[in-house]
Amino acid sequence: MGLQPRDSAEDRSGVEVGVGPVTFAEVVAVARHGAAISIGADARRAMEESRAVVENLAVDTIPHYGVSTGFGALATRHIPTERRAQLQRSLIRSHAAGSGPEVEREVVRAMMLLRLSTLTTGRTGVRPVVAETYAAVLNAGITPVVHEYGSLGCSGDLAPLAHCALVITGEGRARDADGELVDGATALRRHGIEPVALAEKEGLALINGTDGMLGMLILAITDLRRLLTTADITAAMSVEALLGTDDVFADDLAALRPHPGQALSAANLRTVMAGSPIRESHRDPEACTRVQDAYSLRCTPQVNGAARDTVDHAATVADRELASAIDNPVVTLDGRVESNGNFHGAPVAYVLDFLAIVAADVASISERRTDRFLDKARNNGLPPFLADDPGVDSGQMIAQYTQAGIVSELKRLAQPASVDSIPSSAMQEDHVSMGWSGARKLRRAVDGLGRVLAIELVTAARALDLRAPLDPAPATAAVVAELRRTISGPGPDRFLAPEIEDAVGLVDSGAVVAAAESITGQLK
C-alpha cells in the first residue's frame, strides 16, 4: 500500500532533532530515504534538566501519574520504588498488543522520528540515552514490526508506539536493514546498540503521542500535492483530446470566486494546454456549435482547487502538531509535571478524514472524464472505447471498469473514522479519535487516486494520438512522449495490466509532472 516516492540526493541529507520542529521534508527524508539523524547539544541539556524534575518526583511520597502509579484505569495504585522498573517493562510489553499485517517501513520510521522529536524537546522527562537509542535504531535501518490494528488514536498511538519501544529494550521483533525478520535483541546486537532499561516515566513517554497518525498525514500530504498537480495535467490532456475549451479557465473568471486553489488549478490547466493545435482546430464558433462542456471538464479547477485548499488546511494542522510536545504527564517549561489531554488525536483525525474525501472526489471527476472518451455519443468523433477495430477490439473499456472499481472503494474509504469513538480502559478513556484508522484508510485512498489518474493518463494520451494529424499542446505532447517510452500508442488490443502499472509508476515517481514542466516550467 502507498506510493513509491521520488529519490534525490537532497532527500538523504542529515536531520538534526532538538533544534526546532522537524519539517515535512525531514520526515520524508528519514521515513523514505534513510536520512541520518543526530541530536543537538541543546536537546541533550533540555532532556537532562527535565529528567532531574522526574527523578525528584520519583522519591516523593505523594503518588505522581506515570512516575509512581499504574496507568489508565489503574492509575490509583501507588507503585513502590523497587517495582518501578518492572512497571515500565510491563507497560511496554502489555501495550505492544497489535494485530494484523505489518505496517509499512516508511510509516514506522516516520512515527519513530516524530516520537524522537518530542523526546528531544525536554518536555517528556526521559534520559538522553533513550533518545540516542531511538536515533541509533533509525540510523541502523532497523524497523520494529508494527501491526495494522491496535491504536484508537487517543492516549497516543499506544500499541504501534509500544511495538517500537519494545525493540529498544531488546524485545519484540524487527526488520533489519535488509528486511530480514529478527528479534529485537538480535537487531540491536548486530549494530552494537545497547538495549535500554527504562526508568520512571520513560515507558509512558515513548507511547503517548499522535506520531503514527501524524507521520501518515505528512506522507499523504506530500503525495497528494504531487497527485493534484498530476490531476491538473491529466485533466488538461482530457479537455484537449475531448475538444473542450480552455476559455473557462481564464484568470478573470477564477478571480470572481477567489479560492486560492481554484486559481492555481486553472492556471495549470491554461499553461498545460497552451499552444495546442487541437484546441485551435475548433475555436471558430461557426464550426463548433457546442456552447458548454460537461461539468467533469469545465469544473475541474473548482474540484481540484478545493482539494488543494483542503490539503493546505491539513498541512497547517500538521505543522501545529509538529511544533507540539505531546505526552501525559508533561514537564512544563517552568518545571511542573502536569496531566493533560494533548494526546487526543482529534485535530489530526479530522483532517485525515477530510483528505480521504478529497482523494475520492478528485478520483471521481477523473473517472468521469475517462468515461466520456469511451462513449461514441460523447467523445466528439473518436472510435468507441478508443478501440482499433471496435467489436473485435474492446480498447479501453475494462480499464475504465478498473477505475470505477477503485473510485467506488474510495467513496467507502471517505466515510469518516473520527466520529466512531469506542470507550476503552474501563471507561477511563471513554472518547477516542480513531485517527490511526483514519490514517490507514487515507493511505489506501491516496494509492487509489494515483491509479485512477494513471488510467486517465493512458486514456487521454491514446485519444490525443487518435486526433492526428492534429498535434497536441507542447506540454501534453511531452507527457505523451514520456508515456510512450514504455507504453505503445493506439493499436489492436493487448495485455493492459502491465501498461496500467507502468503508468502508475510514472504518476507516483513524479515523471508525469516532470515531463510537463520540461515545457512549462514549474507548475503551481
From TrEMBL:
One BP term from GO: L-histidine catabolic process to glutamate and formate
Keyword presence, Manganese: no
Pfam families xrefs: Lyase_aromatic
Catalytic activity: L-histidine = trans-urocanate + NH4(+)
Name of the molecule in the record: Histidine ammonia-lyase
EC number of the protein: 4.3.1.3
Family note: Belongs to the PAL/histidase family.
GO cellular-component term (any): cytoplasm
Chief location category: cytoplasm
Gene Ontology molecular function, alphabetical: histidine ammonia-lyase activity
Keyword Lyase among UniProt keywords: yes
Alphabetical keyword list: Histidine metabolism, Lyase
CDD domains: PAL-HAL
Localization annotation: Cytoplasm
PROSITE patterns the UniProt entry points to: PAL_HISTIDASE (PS00488)
InterPro entries, alphabetized: Aromatic_Lyase, Fumarase/histidase_N, HutH, L-Aspartase-like, Phe/His_NH3-lyase_AS
Pathway: Amino-acid degradation; L-histidine degradation into L-glutamate; N-formimidoyl-L-glutamate from L-histidine: step 1/3
